[in-house]
Write a structure and sequence with these properties.
heterotrimer, A mainly alpha, B mainly alpha, C alpha/beta, A: mainly alpha, ABC transporter involved in vitamin B12 uptake, BtuC, C: alpha/beta, Rossmann fold, four-stranded antiparallel β-sheet
Chain lengths: 285, 353, 235
């Protein structure tokens, strides 16, 4: 059996995982917060788009355009109203508050949409693919990967080439000193969370188009995002792409050997990386 | 004035005697209490033990784990493997399963201690997932669908016939009484061990860590070792509780054994509501939890949303939880573990240095 | 009217009181130095002025307006910029990005722009693309001063800017302060280096245990009086 096909599929899957991871990495980079509800917010965004599609009969990509500003506002409000109150404490309070949010979102979605698994549809594009010999490249997975690269390019540009990015990086360095520069860090955090939620909306779109989702799908998205961040190395957007790709390849190769090993293989590679290089593959030694 | 170091606030011996009396009274509960209450109490004891362990981790050692379900599940699966595959007596199997869980916790802990803070938290969750997925592959124990304990396994349990004769009850009830006592012993032992641990040198080290790691290091305490010891102890407690829980339910599956909801979310809720960083908090929290559970769990998702909202509200408004807030207001500590400076009386002036 | 005055300024950190009713006045265009031993309350004074430590509203007047207790991120917009003790540059930002951070608050233009700061400190222009921690301590201090100037302050607060610098670099930094003063900027410094402070300041205040123990023009104060006020040795 050829490993080339799972390898290619894995790389493409890695694009999706990089999208999951980019928002998580952004938040951790700016405010050292790990949002345990990250995966649940991805699922929430997917349901939001699904609701737009079913209730308003809009195409899915229009729903994405609607969801992006909405998710920005949601992330901004979440940070301003809840999470900013937790940040002066140690890590316990922000972790547990986001864990509580995770439970609330999962059950809220269960009430609103039932436990049935759902999907976003984009018409014929879903099944379109190019075939080369025994390798088949799906259009949607390829677009996902390209979008992931574009999102990471965009975030890198934003962080390293704009005034906002400069402020975000400075705030990550010191929340006290940015204040004497005339900046309210709580406002910066809210913008960072808003940006993270825009990335969440994009990730949710491709998750929903590529596969089924249900209200309980959040935690595993969080774990994939987290594993991609750690494998790639902390605080690097390109690291999330590399980490996502490695995770994707590990899963598809694992699944090619035994279909039940898909998730397991990904987790095992993650554990191997923290055993060998706990600061991630891209981290400076 | 001369000063000394004291841990006790009230007459702590009196409190300990009272605690002993409560345990003894609880031991007699099966004589009068209905079976449904006994089942609730078993759940309280099991949750209290797991919560106390999580409290030691998060409230004292600063290790936030969202993966304690790994050890609860390993305890449960260890028990099933020992009973079904090796024919071990159930009560002995509970102990052995806990030892297996603890032994697994050592390499897992060594790996997890390479991660810090929030990364440790999510890392422990990944490990729990790994065990869930691995045990779903173990066909001899039912694979992904799980397995039930054979009836014969628990009918020949140690001490069962004596209890049946003593109480004049059938096997099913007798079995429940044995498990009830074991669960009571488990909760009492975990609470007692935590209490002793926190009053020992390790407890002193942990409170030094809480006040700042450099401070702890400067008084010659190996922080990482101390935290690791707490991690392994917490794994032991969780495995033991898991083994007992699944002996009681007599049915196990990878999803029920390694559920983050039951063994971590509920446990966090218990500790947060009760009062993190206190010995009393998890006890109070598990009682509140089981009362809520038995009265509200019919509401399904609404019930879980309520738990989430309550947990977040307590974290934001009263982060020391019910017991912590109560004891801050009143100064009452039933099981005090903090050292305080107390005046020992006037120093005779002639002896002044 | 003085540009900046404090009236009975008190600062608390929890139960600990750091300042007990401090009265200080700074005139437009002046350089004023606060001297005092460790723990005299100098840094608390700076933190209160820059908004990092809470105070009563009417304890601090800026051009007659009560501004005490204004959050730090608004204080800089009112025209009070701080060069913090220990420089506190943003380590993951370049020299130029650090300087640009100074103008983040969108303050009123008073002639300090990036080219002006570079003309003032030409060495920073050469190193503009380097990360801040790669500079020497003295150069980092210049970045910190330049960063505060980028906020176009009405009054520049400098907290212990000679700390940890070589004598030559201390001289460079104080020459820069003199040139900044020559451009009309009001300067308030906190300084443990008595000689540097006395040379640079039009007037000094000496703090001891959270109170003003002496005030006056350097030329009018005797050495003994300063020592007594500084160390609390004699009356």
């Amino acid at each position: 059996m050829s490993l080339l096909n799972p390898l290619i599929q894995g790389v493409l899957l890695g694009g999706l995982y990089a999208l999951y991871a980019a928002g998580l990495s952004l938040i951790f980079g700016v405010m050292r917060l790990v949002n345990l509800a990250h995966g649940d917010f991805i699922v929430l965004a997917a349901y939001l788009m699904l609701a737009c599609v079913t209730a308003l009969a809009l195409p899915a990509w229009v729903a994405l355009l609607i969801a992006m500003p909405f998710m920005f506002a949601l992330g901004w409000a979440l940070q301003r109203l809840i999470l900013n109150r937790t940040l002066k404490n140690d890590l316990l309070v922000p972790l547990l508050v986001t864990f509580g949010l995770s439970i609330i979102i999962q059950n809220g979605l269960l009430l609103a949409f039932s436990a049935d698994s759902r999907r976003l549809t984009v018409g014929e594009l879903e099944i379109a693919s190019w075939t080369f010999g025994d390798i088949s490249i799906g259009v949607v997975p390829l677009i996902t990967f390209i979008v992931a690269v574009l999102v990471i390019l965009g975030l890198t540009f934003l962080f390293y080439r704009t005034r906002l990015g400069r402020i975000l990086r400075a705030t990550a360095d010191s929340t006290e000193i940015v204040q004497i520069m005339g900046i309210d860090p709580r406002h910066v955090f809210a913008i960072a969370m808003g940006l993270s939620f825009v990335v969440i909306a994009v990730a949710a779109f491709f998750m929903g188009v590529r596969a089924n989702f249900d209200p309980a799908a959040g935690p595993s998205r969080l774990l994939y995002a987290f594993e991609a961040v750690v494998i790639g190395g902390l605080g690097s957007f390109w690291g999330t792409l590399i980490g996502g790709t490695i995770l994707g390849v590990a899963q598809t190769v694992g699944a090619a050997i035994n279909p039940e090993w898909q998730q397991l293989a990904g987790h095992v590679v993650f554990l191997a990386v923290i055993l060998a290089r706990p600061r991630g593959l891209l981290a400076r030694a | 004035m001369r000063y000394g170091i004291a841990i006790s606030t009230w007459n702590s011996r009196l409190i300990l005697i009272a605690a002993g009396v409560v345990v003894i009274l609880l031991a007699f509960a099966p004589v009068i209490a209905p079976r449904s209450l006994i089942q609730d109490l078993i759940l309280i004891f099991v949750m209290c033990a797991i919560a106390q362990c999580w409290n030691l981790l998060a409230g004292y050692a600063g290790l936030i784990s969202v993966g304690q379900q790994a050890f609860v599940g390993l305890g449960g699966y260890g028990l099933f493997a020992l009973i079904i595959l090796a024919g071990v007596d159930p009560l002995l199997a509970v102990l052995l399963a806990a030892i297996i869980g603890t032994l697994i916790a050592i390499p897992v802990g060594l790996l997890m201690f390479r991660l810090q803070g929030a990364y440790f938290a999510v890392g422990t969750w990944v490990v729990a997932e790994v065990f869930r997925l691995l045990l779903a592959q173990w066909k001899a124990l039912g694979g992904g669908t799980g397995n039930s304990l054979p009836r014969t396994a628990t009918t020949e349990m140690f001490g069962l016939s004596t209890i049946n004769a003593l109480f004049g009850v059938r096997n099913a009830v007798g079995r429940e009484i044995v498990i009830y006592w074991a669960a009571l012993a488990l909760a009492a032992a975990v609470v007692g061990a935590s209490y002793l641990l926190l009053r020992s040198r390790i407890g002193l080290a942990l409170s030094a860590v809480r006040d700042g790691e450099t401070a702890a290091e400067s008084v010659g305490v190996d922080i990482t070792r101390t935290k690791f010891a707490v991690y392994v102890f917490a794994a032991f407690g969780a495995s033991l509780a898991g083994a007992l829980y699944f002996l009681d339910s007599a049915r196990i599956s990878p999803d029920s054994a390694f559920t983050v909801l039951d063994w971590t979310a509920y446990v966090i809720f218990i500790v947060v509501i009760g009062g993190i960083g206190t010995i009393e908090g998890p006890i109070l929290g598990s009682i509140i939890f089981v009362v809520l559970q038995s009265s509200l769990s019919d509401y399904g998702p609404w019930y879980l949303i309520l738990l989430g909202v309550l947990g977040i509200a307590v974290m934001l408004v009263a982060p020391r939880g019910l017991w912590g807030t109560f004891s801050d207001l009143t100064g009452i500590h039933l099981l005090p573990t903090r050292r305080r400076l107390v005046p020992l009386g006037e120093t005779p002036p002639t002896r002044e240095a | 009217m003085s540009l900046l005055t404090t009236h009975g300024l008190e600062v608390f950190y929890g139960d600990f009181q750091a300042l007990f009713g401090v009265d200080v006045a700074v005139e437009e265009g002046e350089t004023v130095a606060i001297i005092g031993a460790n723990g005299a309350g100098k840094s608390s004074f700076m933190n209160a002025l820059s908004g990092l430590a809470p105070t009563r509203r009417d304890a601090i007047l800026l051009a007659g307006e009560a501004v005490g207790g204004t959050p730090a991120y608004d204080m800089v917009k009112l025209g009070i910029a701080l060069v913090p003790e220990g420089r506190r540059l943003f380590p993951s930002l370049t020299v130029e990005e650090n300087l640009l951070m100074g103008s983040s608050g969108r303050t009123v233009e008073r002639g300090w722009t990036l080219p002006v700061v570079y003309d003032f400190f030409p060495v920073l222009r050469e190193r503009r693309r380097q990360l801040a921690p790669t500079l020497s301590g003295g150069q980092q201090q210049l970045v910190a001063i330049g960063r505060a100037l980028m906020a176009n302050p009405r009054i520049l607060l400098c907290d212990e800017i000679s700390l940890g610098l070589s004598p030559a670099m201390v001289q460079t930094v104080y020459q820069a302060l003199a040139a900044i003063k020559a451009r009309g900027t009001t300067i308030l410094i906190v300084e443990q280096d008595l000689r540097a402070a006395l040379a640079a300041a039009d007037r000094i205040y000496c703090f001891m245990e959270g109170r003003v123990s002496l005030a006056g023009r350097p030329a009018e104060l005797s050495r003994d009086a300063i020592q007594a006020a500084y160390f609390g040795t004699a009356r």
